Amino acid sequence: MIKSVLLVTGGAGFIGSHLIELLVKKYPKIKIISVDNYFTGKKENHINHKNVKYLKGNTMDIFNVWKKRKLPKPKAIFHLGEYSRVVQSFNDFDLVWNFNIEGTKEVIKFASKVGAKLVYAGSSSKFGDREYENLSPYSWIKAKNIELIKNYSNWFDLNYVITYFYNVYGPKHIRQGKYSTVVGIFEKQFENEKPLTVVSPGTQTRDFTHVKDIVEGMLICYQKGSGDGYQLGTGRELSIIGLAKMFKTKYILIPEKTGERERGKADFSKAKKLGWNPKIEIEDYINEFINHSN
Asked: What pTM does this model have?
């Protein structure tokens, strides 16, 4: 018998599909509902389980999506249904605004109205030794959403926890096209026996975190966390050239891209206090990928 409902926005996406897979294992008696507009989500990412239901819809219309189907109030909302690329956000400003401002505003209102705990996927692009949040439309808007969530909680009533993702990689990440991730791009180039394209200068660092660790962290923050500041990363800086060298193949430098920050490194001490620790090393993941490819 289904006792309650959890909502995952963006549940057909890379991270959302892994989260749903985890939720099904952890909560066998809870209904999981995904609302996704399939901008980058795919039907191939669907988790085939009797307790999982996929709905096509926009977060901007979340009230109507829910009301139309006469669904019970969700216990929690894991909000992953946002635009999530830094460089491309310059060309997709209207999309970022609609998905990440208008859509998230409605999700926040919905969570407050139904009494659901909002688990928000913030962006690590706001952190650094200078004002990185102003480098791109994506980073700025994501930072403003954090302010909105906090203020909305004070103005009205909202139970929330904010997590921050650091360069997520792993099975089902996007490997080609303008929304692909750097690890995914390198994988595809490796398979095609092409030089890996490293964005200049190559010394910029990132904290690469496996998607399995990310969703575990998100779940723990839902269960035990409250408020802001839960950074989900390994706490290790790795240069893009260093990442390329792990593939043991040729690489070339390509021109710099607008909006990219110089460094990225998580301070996951707050999440660690809840019992979360990243487990998967990127070297192991890449070595396994290379061995499988060969």
From this structure: 0.96
